[in-house]
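Deliverable D2.4 — example input (C-alpha cells):
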C-alpha cells in the first residue's frame, strides 16, 4: 500500500498573534535542494547530531540527502545516501559521530531497505538485502538503535502482521518478530513514518487507525491499545516517563487534537489545551517535565512549551526565524541543548536551529510563586497567593487559548490582585511571569 510520505501537520490550539523573543538561533544545515527541511533529527549528544531531509516545496521529489555535525552545529556537512533515486527517508537513528542508520522506502516500486554508514556518511551500505522489507508491499516506517549493536525496525503489515525486525549485531543479521508476539492489525491498518518514541526497553508507535502499539521488552512482544476511533491517525508520540505521555490524533482533513495517558498508553484522555499548542512535533525535554511543541505551516508557525503535560502552553516564539518560517521537528539532549528543523534557503542559509534560551526545566514554573487563587470561583476580583514580591507580567487566556488581557502589576506578601470583572463568565488561565522570567499558571473560574 502506498502511503502519503509526510504531511506537515501544524494545527494549533488557537489563533495566537502575540510575538515572543525566539529562544532558537539559526544554523545552516547544508542541504543542496532549496526548501528541504529536516524530517527527522537524532541527537547523539550535545556535539553529534544527524538529520535527514524531505522536500517541502510540494514537488514530491524524493530526497536521499542527510546532514550531520560533530561540533554542536557550528559546521554541518551534507551528503547523499547511496540508494535508488526513488527512495525516501522514513526514519534515522545514529549511535555515534561515525555511525548512522536510515530506514527508507521506495516511493515508486514499493519495498524498502535499511542503510548504514560507519564513516560519517561517506559510504552507505544496505543491510539485510533480500531478507527485510524485500516484498513490493513492504513499507518501512521506523528504525531505532539503543547502542552500536542492538536495534529494531518496523514496517507496515506483511502476511497479516506488522513487519518488525530486531538485531543484536549492528544490523549484520535481522530476526523478524513472530506473528504470535504482535497484536493483530485491524483492517487497513499501517504505521506512520517516524512516528514512535522509546524510553529504555519500552517502545510506542502509532497507526492510522487510532491505535498505539506498545512493547515492554525492547520490541520482542507487542500489544495494541486504542486512543480514538479507528478513522484517525495517531502521531507525535512523546513520553516523559514510562507512564505519562501525550500524542496527537489527526483526521483526514488535517485537524489535530491532543490526548494524554497516565498509564503508559493503555488508556488515553482528550486534553483541551489552554494557550498556543503546536502539533507538528512534540517532545519532552530530557531531565525535566517540560513538553515542547513546534509547527511550520500556513495554519501555525512557532514553538511553545507546557509545564503540565499539555494542559497549559506558554509561547516560546511565533513564525520562526528563517526565510521560510516555522519548525518542522525537534530533538533534545538536555535542558540547555536541542535542535529544531527549518527550511533551507540554499546550502549556506537556514535549515536548522539550535536552542539558545535559558535552561528548560521545572524551574521555568516558579515552584513557590503561585499557590492558590481566592476566591475561586470568583465574581471577578481575585487575589493570588504568592511568595514573590515585585513587578509581574500577567496574561489571561480564555478556555480557547485566546489572549484576553495583558498587563503588569505588583505582587506583595499579601498576594497579587487580579481584576477580571470586565470578562464574561467562564474559565480562564492566568499566566504570571516574574522579573526572573519564571512563569506559573493558575486556572480561575469567573462567575
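Example output (designed residues):
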Amino acid at each position: 500500500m502506498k502511503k502519503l510520505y509526510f504531511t506537515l501537520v501544524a494545527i494549533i490550539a488557537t489563533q495566537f498573534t502575540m510575538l515572543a523573543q525566539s529562544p532558537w538561533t539559526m544554523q545552516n544545515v547544508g542541504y543542496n535542494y532549496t526548501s528541504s527541511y529536516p524530517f527527522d533529527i537524532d541527537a547523539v549528544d550535545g556535539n553529534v547530531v544527524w538529520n535527514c531531509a524531505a522536500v517541502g516545496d510540494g514537488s514530491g521529489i524524493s530526497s536521499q540527502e542527510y546532514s550531520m555535525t560533530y561540533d554542536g552545529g557550528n559546521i554541518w556537512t551534507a551528503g547523499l545516501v547511496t540508494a535508488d533515486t526513488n527512495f525516501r527517508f522514513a526514519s534515522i537513528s545514529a549511535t555515534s559521530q561515525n555511525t548512522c542508520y536510515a530506514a527508507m522506502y521506495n516511493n515508486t516500486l514499493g519495498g524498502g531497505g535499511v542503510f548504514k554508514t560507519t564513516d560519517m556518511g561517506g559510504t552507505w551500505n544496505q543491510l539485510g538485502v533480500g531478507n527485510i522489507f524485500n516484498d513490493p508491499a513492504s513499507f518501512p516506517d521506523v528504525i531505532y538503535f539503543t547502542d552500536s549493536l542492538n536495534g529494531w525496525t518496523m514496517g507496515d503489515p506483511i502476511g497479516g502482521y506488522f513487519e518488525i525486525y530486531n538485531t543484536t549485531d549492528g544490523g549484520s543479521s535481522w530476526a523478524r518478530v513472530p506473528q504470535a508476539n504482535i497484536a493483530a492489525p485491524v483492517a487497513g491498518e499501517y504505521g506512520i513514518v517516524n512516528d514512535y518514541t522509546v524510553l529504555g526497553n519500552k517502545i510506542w508507535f502509532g497507526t492510522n487507525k487510532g491505535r498505539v502499539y506498545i512493547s515492554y521488552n525492547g520490541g520482542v512482544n507487542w500489544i495494541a491499545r486504542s486512543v480514538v476511533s479507528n478513522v484517525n491517525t495517531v502521531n507525535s508520540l512523546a513520553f516523559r516517563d514510562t507512564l505519562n505521555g501525550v500524542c496527537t490524533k489527526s483526521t483526514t482533513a488535517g485537524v489535530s487534537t491532543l490526548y494524554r495517558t497516565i498509564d503508559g498508553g493503555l488508556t488515553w484522555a482528550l486534553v483541551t489545551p489552554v494557550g498556543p499548542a503546536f502539533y507538528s512535533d512534540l517532545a519532552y525535554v530530557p531531565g525535566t517535565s517540560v513538553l515542547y511543541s513546534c509547527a511550520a505551516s500556513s495554519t501555525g508557525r512557532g514553538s511553545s512549551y507546557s509545564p503540565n503535560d499539555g494542559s497549559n502552553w506558554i509561547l516560546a516564539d511565533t513564525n520562526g526565524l528563517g526565510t521560510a518560517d516555522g519548525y518542522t521537528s525537534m530533538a533534545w539532549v538536555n535542558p540547555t541543548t536541542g535542535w529544531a528543523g527549518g527550511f533551507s534557503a540554499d546550502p549556506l542559509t537556514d535549515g536548522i536551529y539550535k536552542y539558545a534560551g535559558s535552561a528548560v526545566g521545572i524551574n521555568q514554573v516558579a515552584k513557590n510563586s503561585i499557590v492558590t487563587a481566592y476566591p475561586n470561583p470568583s465574581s471577578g476580583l481575585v487575589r493570588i497567593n504568592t511568595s514573590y514580591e515585585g513587578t509581574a507580567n500577567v496574561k489571561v487566556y480564555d478556555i480557547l487559548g485566546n489572549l484576553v488581557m495583558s498587563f503588569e502589576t505588583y505582587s506583595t506578601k499579601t498576594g497579587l490582585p487580579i481584576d477580571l470583572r470586565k470578562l464574561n463568565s467562564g474559565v480562564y488561565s492566568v499566566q504570571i511571569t516574574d522579573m526572573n522570567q519564571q512563569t506559573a499558571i493558575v486556572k480561575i473560574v469567573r462567575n
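Residues 1-20, 362-370 have pLDDT under 50 and may be disordered.
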